[in-house]
User: Fold this.
Amino acid sequence: MYRVSRHSDFGTPHGRPARPISRAYGAGARKGRTRLDQGQPTTTSLAMASSVAGPSTPTATAPTKSKRRQNPNNVIYANPLPLIIETRPPAPYTLGLLPFPRTKIINPECSGIYDALTRSVWIVGKRDVRVLWERGFFGKGSLSRSEPSWLTRKVQQLNGGEVLTAEEVTARRREQRKQFKVSRAAAIQKAAQEAEAAFSASLESPATTFELPLVNTPHNVPRPTFEPAASKGGTAGRPPPTEAKADKAANSEEEVEKQLREQPELLDEDQVENMEHLQLTLQEAFFLAWGLGCLRVLDRDSGQYLNLPALWSLCLTSSSSPVPTLSPTPAECRRPDNPFLIHYVAYHHFRSLGWVVRGGIKFCVDYLLYKRGPVFTHAEFAIVLCPEYDDPSDGSSSPFAFQKEPFTWTWFSTINRVNAQVKKTLVLAYVTIPAMSAVGERELGSPECLRMYSVREVVVRRFVPARMRD
Amino acid sequence: MDDALSIPKHSLHSDALPAVGGDPETPAEAEAGDSDSGEEDTPDWTRFAPPPAPSGPSSASGAAGRKQFHVIPQRGEKEFEPSRAGAGETALQAYALQRARAAMLRALRPERGSSSKGITWGVWQPREGTVRVPHPRGQAFTTMGHFLPSSPHGGGGGGGAANASSAGRREARTDPRAVGTERERERQLLLLPEEALYLIERGSMFCTHELADPPPSARDPHTLASEQEEEEEEEARWDESAPPAVVPMSVQQAFGALLGRSGLTLERYQVYAHLRRLGYTVTRACAPEGPLFPRAPARPAPSASLPQRLWSSVRRWAARLRPPGARRDWWAPLRPGWAGRRWTAQRLFAALRLVPSGHALPLHSASPATTPEAGAGATAADTSPYEVFYHVWRPSTPWKKTAVPPPDFHLIVLNANTTRVPTLAELARVFSQLPVQPPPAPRKRPNAPPPAPAPAPPPTILTRLRRLLGLAPAPTAGMQQTAHRTPPFVALKAGRKTVVLAVVDGGSVSLVRFSQGVFEDWPMV
Assistant:
């Protein structure tokens, strides 16, 4: 009776994570452009959605179902952090004098493995993967686009059903686009040939007036049609169940029974080995381990869990070169302009403001900021880090190879144009690096040095005078 | 954008096909919605073609007649490759290309003229670096030019400092009927080099060199026969109907003479001309001379009152003192709450905010030249290209020389090849001189009723005490009106202070706005 609460700020307090994703993507694949079509889900997703919605939904207690609550994404991704705040009514011994409810933080206590080659932390446990992805969108599936969905795709591929993960949706959209481009090019070619014929006809008979046609008029460009290509590789391992059903009708009863026994069973996710893991960057891993305290990192060599000081020095030396003779050596990494520190300052700053921070390499930037998460809307801001030294002489003695002087205008225009095309606002985050004389060994040995950095954001937008006259 | 399901936008609006040689019937297409296309639009020369002779039967206009185009028509999509691979262009493509070229040449061939009634004559004064305009004509001069101040001393008297600037020191307007004297000269409009160059290039002003027209006071007055003769000569010289009998400067000569004076570079001129052609009002941020230059009202310096300064220093001192038991454990930023502490999502995130942020923080810069408040003495400030050069107003802002509104935009002009993206110190110095913008107003929905002003709660004793001490602002009417809050993304994108950077790269101008981010004021949780 104390566990279930309707008033917790973090939403559902259930400890068991929900089943993954295909329902969520079937529902929210369009990222806010089109609304979730509640009326026509596919049969598989409907069945699974109902099985999920039954025992674990806490919102069944809510009397009114607004549009927001109907979206299953709001249920699955209700917690912004892996920590869950649970409120309990005041203890009975207070006798009602202290009417404040007591709160307790529930820590999921995930664990991961540090991989030195990729300088990242791998999360392998199934429950930990779901917890870290669904509460805060940490990490990236190593065999997927973002959410670890490889197992689902593999199982559904083996079962021969229709797949609805983000990867398949994207692949289908790209197929459509390619076909549309081919048919459009053919139509343009045809129109051009017709215009040529008309032109040469008018040349021969000068009496007819010739009008120069516009090649790309609407009636020339065909409507996009999509003929689904023959599904390739759908029946890799086992025949789909429909074929078995078709064969059944033609045979006698004995053969029917025999075939029923031989009919391959549908695979479940537990039967297929998951080759994928969730990969966290060092900034995400340190934020979870130190900032929230919900992650333990295992070191493969020693077989021990790393404590926080050891993890801190591991993260600092991750910027060192694996070749011992090249700089920077691990000893040289104890400097305030360590790239890990610069990135971590910005990551921690934006996470503490409530943003979901993910990598921005796709758009030539350092980080992307999402308001709630990638499954809800597109990222609104693209962050580019601009480190600035408090003491300019530190830059000349730095062994790290990152850009120490500001961008050229050409490169800046490139990044701005790329992000303007995808409707993101570019933000330059100026991170000031404290002088080496001001930061001692003691401060660098603990996260206390973070308070000596600072982050200042500068929002960049184009100014088009032709459109801003009023 | 590579969107497969979109149709090229221009073709959605073109109804009729342009006839060969005929005047076009349809008005120009609407501008494309893409924010990039506004800059790269080039005119469609076929629409500029003059209408054919009245005997042409192929005109398709019919009853519609010839319309005036208020918008420069856009060019459609071009065919970017020959249709027959390896065979060159087809006959149709060659015909279309020839037609387009002929239209362009036909549109550009006629000589551009301007009415003699609209021509202004100006005199370039190389010593002062300004152009003197005795009789300005046209609407352009409502937003251009400035006057020299009049001197309190008595006027008259020849000799002495004989150039026009000192003539301006003498008292003006003593005798309105005095034509052609130095007093007349004092009331004349002065143009900065970029303004004059813009008008010359446009064709609405002819500029003569001052050496061809020396001021009469420079001549020895004893050589003249009589004063009356002198006056007659002056009268003839400043007669409106007769243009001066000298050859005006050509555009090339004007460029050569005016560029480089008064801090005008080619990039700054290009930005000025670009904005003026679009209708904006542009003046310099630093007035070159005299208090009669139409400048924006000076902002009051944001100095804190004495109680506020005391209070802030007390706060800083208290923050440095820390009770020994409450030292933060840097290995556990979320300290386990004591019994009774109520965790919420907001408190959890607030406890994580350890990194200092915000533009209000002072810059801990080791080198003294990069401090933002260094003032005019620092050499870095003098040589930095990041200084606000132009004040820009929108075309819709009412602008008068006697009542100049606060500028809509502050503009910095940069050369793309010699400068880089600004560093934090340069940005801080620029932002320290700019005013704070209020957050943008929430968009009014047409159907929603206007928000009722929230009734202000009666001021408590504590707030009254704080207002007395000057720590809290006095209530204004504006604070009670906004019942709707600004959407957070709109406020985040607008920022607190904005400066426009015009980056000029060999003639192409790209304008970017840099705003101070306010992310710490708008957390997402």
